[in-house]
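[step 3/7] fold_predict: job queued, chain A
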Amino acid sequence: MKIFSLVLFLFSNAFAEEARLLKITGPDVIITRGKEKLKAVEGFAFEEGDTVQTVNATILIHLFPSTQVAVDKNTTIKIDKNVIESTKKLEKSFSIVGLEQGRVRLKILKDNDQEIDQKLVTDRVAFSARAADFEVSATLAEVALDVHEGLVEASSPFVHSFVPEMTKANEALVFSTKTKSFSRRKFASQVTAPHFVGKADLMKNWKASKKARAKKSVKKKK
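[step 4/7] structure written:
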């Protein structure tokens, strides 16, 4: 998939973080890392550049620090970027998930000491949110957005506008491949992927990951 170019934030003192596979229903999940095909099991640690293809299975991914990605059947996504910068007062994260085909739902939670910039991109449309719950489906004919909570921005290189399309809770937006334009429709949730986990579980996973990373860092220094 050719994802159109985006301006990436460059964080000083930042580090690349991974995502983890929280839930999996069904055996048909293909994870590709370079030329390798890896087995999908709960707890699997994703790296930037990993591609995930579901066939007759659905999965739930925890993208650190606090974004969940529910992936429906017959869907292909890519972990394009996930960078986190930690300071004494604030934890900033910038993430990009690429959607090649199929349907996903993202839920972004954050604490007061977190600043999250989450993007979901296709080859025609880019979506951006900071604290929201939304789903996107991509077919050859269209790219559709349905927002459950929060506010989501949408932009396309085919739509010449300086102002992104803003979609709020219980609203929907569709980009037509044929007309290369956005239009509105009624909200209609369609994702059947696993249920999201609670915020407490997310924070527990994230703290455990940071602790493990700190231990590795200490060992390397020795």
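[step 5/7] annotate
Confidence is low (pLDDT under 50) at residues 2-13.
The domain at 14-187 is CATH 2.60.120.1440 (Jelly Rolls).
exit 0
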